[in-house]
Write a structure and sequence with these properties.
The chain contains three helices and 14 strands. The protein is mainly β. The chain has a 14-stranded mixed sheet with strand order 7-8-9-10-11-12-13-1-2-3-4-5-6-14.
Length: 249
Amino acid sequence: MKYLAFFFMGLAGLLFSCSKKLTPAIPPPSPSLEIEEIDFEYFHAKAKLIFRDEKKEQDVKTHIRIRKDSVIWMTFTGLAGVQGGRALINRDSVTIVSSVDKEYFVFDYKELSKRYNLDINYFTIQSAILGNLITAHAENDKITQGPTHNILEQQRANVIIKNFINAASKKLEKVEMKESNTNNSIVVTYENFQPVNEKTYAFNGTISINYRTPSGLVNNTIILEYSKAEVGDKELKFPFNIPRKYDRR
């Protein structure tokens, strides 16, 4: 399950670049751009997560629980039904536990920010999972209205972000992000929208990541196929512990 730790780190290097100098709260969009977003107190979902790179493809079953603006809890189970890992993402850090390798990783946002020279926070992950705007809509953003999709174009530091919103459903269907100085890029797509508590939620999502490292270009794809998604006020539990015999990496 080591790839899970590197997945979160790699994703952070691109995804969180868009959160630089942003506040967690997302203000209402301007009247000329309507976006239907998921609002909630608790979120619970089951999905199949597929991780793919140039060398391998691996899929696991995952359970996801979120308490709004507080914590994201995930478990990962292999096809044989054996729990392979857990993740706890809160406003201070990201912790990944590998039950298979009996080890764990802890990344605080200060460490990740220094590693990638970016401001990193919890709220971007939460928005990406829910299919909400990854960065706040500001007055100087460019809006292009089309017959099928409206495009919200944003510039955040050296990152150009294009959000494609379905003109009929008002749902965010694709996000394209690119760093102008490195050409590192990430594309997030949302598909198969189904009703969830009077809103609609994407039951299929794909994250395509392309970035350069000292050893060369890295291409990763993460696919999420949901079988269940619920939002509501019912309190959820977030059990998480690390056995003392596990090694910290």
